[in-house]
Amino acid sequence: MNFKFIISAFSILLSYVSFGQSINYRLKMEKPQNHYFQVEMELTDFKENDVTVKMPVWAPGSYLVREFSKNVDLVKAKDEKGQALAVNKKTKNAWVISKGAAKKVIVSYEVYAFELSVRTSFLDLTHGFVSGSGVFMYVDGRQELAGQLTVVPYKDFAKVSTALPKSAESVAADGVQSFVFKNYDQLVDCPIEIGNQEVFTFKAAGVLHTVAIYGAGNYNVDKLKADMAKIVETATGVVGENPNKEYTFIIHNVVDGQGGLEHCNSCTLSVNRWTYSDAEYLGFLSLVAHEYFHLWNVKRIRPIELGPFNYDEENYTSLLWVMEGFTTYYDELLLVRAGYTDDTDYLQKLQSTVNYVEGSVGARVQPLAHASFDAWIKAYRPNENSSNTTMTYYSRGQMLAALIDVMIISKYDGKKCLDHFLQQLYNKYYKKLNRGFSEQEFKTELEEMLGENLDVFFAKYVNGTDIAPLSETFAKVGVQVTEIGLPRASFGAGLRQDGGKTIVRSIRAGSAAELAGLSVNDELIGCNGYRVDQTDFEQFVNGVENGAQFKILVSRDDILYELSVKMTMYDRPQYQFKVVEDDAKAKLRKYWLRKTV
Ligand SMILES: [Zn+2]
After folding, report:
1. What CATH architecture is 18-196?
2. Fold for domain 488-570?
3. I need a labelling partner for 341 at 20 to 30 A (CA). Which of 61, 67, 137, 285 fits?
4. Would the pTM count as exceeding 0.85?
């Protein structure tokens, strides 16, 4: 026992003795066909005359204000004798309860849950899924309070799967289950699946993993156990320590899979139900690796702004490129280390990522740090112009992670890599200081690791929009990167067929299409006096040379316009990755793309 522990044990004791407050939730789903959860919050021993309860506006990990209070109905409150207490709305997501001298307050409300995604909640006759920040309100200013959650499943639902710890009297005869949470952050960081899901367990990296799968699919439980265990072992090898004793995967097999959402000791994955074979299966394993890796990167190794969360508004950080970019980098690298893909596949994928990033118009407009900071209004709210103005921090962050990894490998001659940098952050900020780091601290840590000043690197590639130093960096590990892009004549509009009509879906900034006056949503009807569809027009325009002119007929708001087009050149950067035979560099490359299990 050390000094710090004594102090914290004493302060916990003090908080119980002097306040004795508690907060308990009860979650019911009496009529799943109407998609409403019923929630009760029991507040005991609050001294204030008024208590404010709030519904979060967002779900951590998904950087968009979603206004969860829009789904809340019938907010009521009563005291310990059953007497109604006045409830008044204060802001869009806050309710004030006039409790007076009441010892106990029971707040009740209903939540409409009909959006099945990893970040929202859902209920029907087949199952319920609770993403906590959209279902459980909190007492304003008292998010630190511990409590209990009781789940009363619908009569036909046999199972409750969540990473929340079970309470002592966990399962009652009628299927009612109780869980405990140490604060509000933990309560809403543990999504809950309620229904008749298939549940199995496996042990890996010394951690008991529970997998709860909703929905039919072509999965094989034994194969999943073996492959997910391999991913877990490989991911744990990066930081070298798995901080959990137990971990829960909730998987939704649906038609339209949407990816995943990370939590401290669980995650939710939404995938196409037929994803468990061939190339799609590698995509599934990569998603498992991604969300699992987040238990370190973003949940524990994190920017200072991301915890404790402010549930009332946007939580800005310019480091999402490290959180999501590095995680995306590892979700592919871990497949190499686990032996599912090899170094050739990997370099091919990296080449595609680099070409996507550096070949995009938006990459020259939006710096990586801005993409991160503005995720709330740009990445999560794209429009028809987004490809001209934005570049995702997932892909560009992934590319920078690869560059930084190679820089570290080269500096330490194949004895250290990005893993060791993450270990440094984990040990210092999570374990020792128990907090996140600022952007400046992140930069300083990286400078110390690399033994060089990174002002120019950050100015150009993080806060600026310069093309990354690809050839000089990857040359250090024997990968030759060559610019092979050639300027070509280009029209610059994306089209789609819609009910027999050819509609403009995107216009590249500065393109011939833009100069001619074509707009998104225009219907393209004719070209040089002939009616055309998408295929006809694309065939035609692919054969037109730079400077050549033609006319197009479009309809905008049912008025016909004839536009004159003059083809222009478009110079899109494009790169080719090629391995160079060099023994010293091959050694470093092999270390970079090594198999570890
Ligand atoms: Zn992620």
Report:
1. Sandwich (2.60)
2. Pdz3 Domain (2.30.42)
3. 61
4. yes
